[in-house]
C-alpha cells in the first residue's frame, strides 16, 4: 500500500510542477524519477527487479531492439529507449536540414507557387504544415513556417495571426497521422508494437478526412480576416529571395530526409526498428556534416530527452504498483464494458486532458491502461490505441498550452509583435478541435465498432 | 558627453514618470515608456492597445514554456521590451527609460544610472486623486492595485527586488521636495556624476 501511495503522490506532484512551469520540465521528471526509484521501488516495494525492469537498459543490447525480423518489437514497460533514441536521431536530422536552409526554401518556394496570393498561401501552408509534421517534429515545422508567414505577411500586407493558428492546428493534425509525427504516437507505436504503415492506414486515414474538413472550415471562417482589400499588393511586384547558400548541404539533407521517410514507411517489411532508423539517420547526417557534426550534436534538445527518461520512470512506478490497472478497471466499470462508451471516454478524456497538460506523460500513462482494458474487456487494443493517439494529438490544439507547436507558434508571432491571447486562440481553434474530434469519433465508430 | 542611460523605477503616484520626463527634457534625450510598443504596433498594422494591455505584467493563468518559447503574451511582450531596451543601449544612444525592469536588463551596462522613486502614501493618494479625479478610497485602491502588479512583474523578471535600494544607484522619496524639485535635484546630481566621469 505504501508503494502505491508514494507512486500516486510522486506522479501528482510531477504533473503539478509541469503545469506550474516554474522549473525546467526535465529537472521535474528526473527528480520525480529519482524519488520513484527510492520511495516506490526501494522503500515501498523493496524490489530491485522492479527498478531494473523500469530502467530497461538491458533491452537496448538485445537484437530485437534494433532488428525485429519476425514481428514488430514491443516494449512492455519502463523507459521507452526506442522512443528516446529515435527522437535523438530525428532531432539531428532536422538540425541538419535547418542548417542547410531546407525549410526556408520549401516555404518560400510554395508561397511563390501560390503566386504570393494570401488566401492561396493560407491554404497551401495548412497542407504543408500537415505534411511536414507527419515526418518532422511539429516544433520545427511551426518555428520555420510561422517565421516565413510573418515575413510574407509584412511584404504582402496580410494578417499572419489566422494563418499561424491554422498552421498550428494542421501541424498537430498532421502529427497524428504517422507514427513519428507526434511523441505520443512514437510511444504508442513502440510500446504496443505498431508500425509506421499501421498508423498511416488508421490515424492517417482519419487525419486525411479531418484535414479536408478543417481546411474548408478555416477557409470559410478566416479568409475574410486575412487581408483588407485596400491592402492588396500586386504579386508581380513581389521580390522575395529564394536562395540556397550551400547546394551540396541542401541536397544532402534532402536525400537524408527522403531516406528517413523511406525507412519509416518500410520498417514493418524490413524489420528495422525505429531505434535503428534513428541511429542510422543520425549517423549519416553526422558523417556528411563533416565539421558541423559537433554543432548539430550540440543543438539536440537534450532536456526533452531527459524529460522522457524521468517521465517513463515515474509512469513505471505507477505501472509496477498496479495503479494503472485500477484506473483501467474504473474505466471498464464506468463504461459498463460498452465499446462505444469506452472509446468516447478515451477520446474525450485524452483530448480534454491534453488541452491542459502535456500529452506525452498523459499518453505514456494511458498505454498500460488501454492494454489492461483490452485484456479485461475484449475491446480491440488497436482501436483504443488509435483513439488515444487521436485524442492526445488533436486535443492539444484546443488551448495555447496544449501542445509544443502551439507554444512555439504563439511565441514566434508574439516576438514579431503579433500577440495571441488565450481568448483569441481559443475562439479560433476550440471549434475546429471539436469538429475534428467529432469527425474522428464517428470515423472510429463506423470503421472499427 | 558619452552614452548614459537613466532608468526610472517608480511607485504608482510617486511622480516617477514625470521625473523621467523632466530628466529627458533637461538632458535633451529621448524617453522610452509605453511608446516602445507603438512603433511595433504601427509597423504591423495592429492596435497598440492590444500590446499595451499586456505590458508590465507578470504572466497570468496557465502558460507553458517549450525550448525557451513561452505561450504567455505577457512574457512575450516583456521580452520584446527588454530586447528593445538592449538594442537601444547597444546602438550607443543616450535615453531615459521608465520601468520595464530596465535597471535589471542593463545591469551590466556601465552607461546605466538607475533611479527608484517612491513617495509617502498620503502624497501619492493626493496626486492620484488630482490627476484622475478620484476620491481617496478609489485612489488608494488604484495605487495598491498598480503597485502590486508592478512589484510582481519586476520581481518575476529581475534579480533584485522592486524598490530594494541595493538594486538602484539613487532611491528617492519624491514627497519630501515635490516632483519637480526632486527631478531638478536628480538632474544636478546626474550632471555632476557625468562630469566627474568624463574627467
Describe the structure.
- The complex is a heterodimer of chains A (449) and B (199).
- With 449 residues, chain A is mainly alpha-helical.
- Chain A has helices spanning 2-20, 25-44, 48-55, 63-66, 81-99, 102-113, 118-135, 138-156, 160-175, 183-192, 196-226, 247-265, 267-270, 274-289, 293-299, 302-320, 323-335, 339-356, 359-377, 381-395, 404-415, 422-448.
- The radius of gyration of chain A is 22 Å and the shape is globular.
- The relative contact order of chain A is 0.15.
- The mean pLDDT of chain A is 90.
- In chain B, the strands form 2 sheets. A 5-stranded parallel β-sheet of chain B has the order 2-5-1-6-7, sandwiched between helices.
- Chain B has one domain (5-198): 3-Layer(aba) Sandwich (Rossmann fold).
- Chain B has helices at residues 16-27, 36-44, 48-52, 73-90, 102-105, 121-132, 136-157, 174-177, 179-198; strands at 5-10, 31-32, 65-66, 69-70, 95-98, 112-118, 170-173.
- Chain B is built from 9 helices and 7 strands; from the N terminus they run E-H-E-H-H-E-E-H-E-H-E-H-H-E-H-H.
Q: Rg of chain B to the nearest angstrom?
A: 17 Å
The radius of gyration over CA of chain A amounts to 22 Å
Strand content of chain A: under 5%
- CATH architecture label of chain B: 3-Layer(aba) Sandwich
Strand order of the largest sheet of chain B: 2-5-1-6-7
How many domains of chain B? The number is 1
Residue share in helices of chain A? over 70%
- Sheet with the most strands, sense and barrel status of chain B: 5 strands, parallel
Question: CATH class of chain B, please?
Answer: Alpha Beta
Uncertain stretches of 5 or more adjacent residues of chain A: none
Distance between the termini of chain B: 11 Å
Oligomer: heterodimer
The largest sheet of chain A is: none
Amino acid at each position: 500500500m505504501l508503494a502505491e501511495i508514494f507512486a500516486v503522490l510522486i506522479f501528482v506532484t510531477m504533473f503539478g510542477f509541469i503545469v506550474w512551469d516554474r522549473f525546467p520540465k526535465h529537472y521535474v521528471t528526473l527528480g520525480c524519477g529519482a524519488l520513484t526509484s527510492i520511495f516506490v521501488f526501494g522503500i515501498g516495494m523493496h524490489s530491485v527487479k522492479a527498478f531494473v525492469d523500469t530502467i530497461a537498459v538491458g533491452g537496448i543490447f538485445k537484437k530485437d531492439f534494433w532488428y525485429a525480423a519476425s514481428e514488430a518489437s514491443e516494449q512492455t514497460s519502463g523507459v521507452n529507449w526506442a522512443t528516446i533514441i529515435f527522437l535523438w536521431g530525428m532531432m539531428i536530422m532536422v538540425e541538419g536540414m535547418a542548417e542547410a536552409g531546407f525549410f526556408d526554401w520549401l516555404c518560400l518556394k510554395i508561397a511563390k507557387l501560390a503566386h504570393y496570393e494570401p488566401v492561396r498561401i493560407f491554404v497551401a501552408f495548412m497542407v504543408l504544415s500537415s505534411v511536414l509534421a507527419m515526418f518532422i517534429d511539429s516544433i520545427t515545422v511551426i518555428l520555420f513556417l510561422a517565421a516565413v508567414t510573418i515575413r510574407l505577411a509584412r511584404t504582402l500586407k496580410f494578417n499572419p495571426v489566422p494563418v499561424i493558428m491554422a498552421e498550428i492546428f494542421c501541424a498537430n493534425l498532421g502529427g497524428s497521422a504517422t507514427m513519428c509525427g507526434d511523441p505520443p504516437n512514437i510511444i504508442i507505436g513502440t510500446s504496443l508494437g505498431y508500425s509506421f504503415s499501421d498508423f498511416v492506414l488508421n490515424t492517417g486515414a482519419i487525419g486525411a478526412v479531418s484535414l479536408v474538413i478543417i481546411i474548408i472550415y478555416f477557409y470559410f471562417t478566416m479568409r475574410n480576416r486575412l487581408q483588407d482589400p485596400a491592402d492588396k499588393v500586386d504579386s508581380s511586384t513581389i521580390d522575395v529571395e529564394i536562395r540556397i547558400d550551400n547546394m551540396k548541404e541542401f541536397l544532402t539533407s534532402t536525400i537524408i530526409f527522403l531516406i528517413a521517410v523511406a525507412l519509416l514507411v518500410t520498417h514493418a517489411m524490413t524489420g528495422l526498428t525505429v531505434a535503428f532508423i534513428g541511429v542510422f539517420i543520425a549517423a549519416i547526417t553526422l558523417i556528411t556534416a563533416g565539421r558541423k557534426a559537433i554543432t548539430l550534436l550540440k543543438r539536440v534538445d537534450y532536456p526533452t530527452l531527459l524529460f522522457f527518461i524521468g517521465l517513463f520512470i515515474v509512469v513505471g512506478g505507477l505501472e509496477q504498483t498496479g495503479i494503472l490497472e485500477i484506473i483501467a478497471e474504473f474505466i471498464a466499470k464506468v463504461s459498463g464494458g460498452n465499446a462505444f462508451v469506452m472509446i468516447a471516454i478515451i477520446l474525450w478524456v485524452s483530448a480534454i486532458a491534453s488541452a491542459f497538460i502535456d500529452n506525452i506523460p498523459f499518453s505514456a500513462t494511458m498505454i498500460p491502461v488501454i492494454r489492461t482494458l483490452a485484456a479485461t474487456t475484449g475491446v480491440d487494443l488497436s482501436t483504443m490505441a488509435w483513439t488515444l493517439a487521436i485524442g492526445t494529438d488533436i486535443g492539444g490544439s484546443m488551448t495555447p498550452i496544449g501542445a509544443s507547436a502551439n507554444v512555439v507558434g504563439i511565441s514566434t508571432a508574439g516576438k514579431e509583435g503579433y500577440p495571441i491571447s488565450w481568448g483569441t486562440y481559443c475562439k479560433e481553434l476550440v471549434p475546429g478541435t471539436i469538429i475534428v474530434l467529432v469527425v474522428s469519433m464517428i470515423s472510429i465508430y463506423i470503421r472499427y465498432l | 558627453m558619452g552614452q548614459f542611460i537613466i532608468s526610472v523605477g517608480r511607485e504608482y503616484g510617486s511622480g516617477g514618470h514625470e521625473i523621467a520626463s523632466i530628466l529627458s527634457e533637461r538632458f535633451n534625450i529621448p524617453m522610452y515608456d509605453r511608446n516602445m510598443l507603438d512603433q511595433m504596433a504601427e509597423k504591423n498594422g495592429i492596435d497598440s492597445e492590444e500590446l499595451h494591455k499586456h505590458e508590465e505584467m507578470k504572466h497570468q493563468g496557465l502558460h507553458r514554456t517549450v525550448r525557451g518559447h513561452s505561450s504567455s503574451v505577457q512574457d512575450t511582450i516583456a521580452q520584446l521590451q527588454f530586447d528593445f531596451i538592449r538594442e537601444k543601449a547597444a546602438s550607443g544612444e543616450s535615453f531615459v527609460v521608465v520601468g520595464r525592469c530596465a535597471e535589471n536588463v542593463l545591469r551590466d551596462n556601465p552607461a546605466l544610472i538607475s533611479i527608484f522613486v517612491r513617495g509617502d502614501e498620503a502624497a501619492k493618494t493626493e496626486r492620484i486623486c488630482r490627476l484622475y479625479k478620484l476620491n481617496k478610497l478609489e485612489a488608494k485602491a488604484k495605487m495598491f492595485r498598480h503597485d502590486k502588479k508592478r512589484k510582481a512583474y519586476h520581481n518575476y523578471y529581475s534579480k533584485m527586488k522592486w524598490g530594494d535600494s541595493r538594486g538602484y544607484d539613487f532611491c528617492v522619496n519624491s514627497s519630501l521636495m515635490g516632483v519637480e524639485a526632486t527631478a531638478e535635484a536628480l538632474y544636478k546630481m546626474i550632471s555632476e556624476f557625468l562630469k566627474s566621469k568624463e574627467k
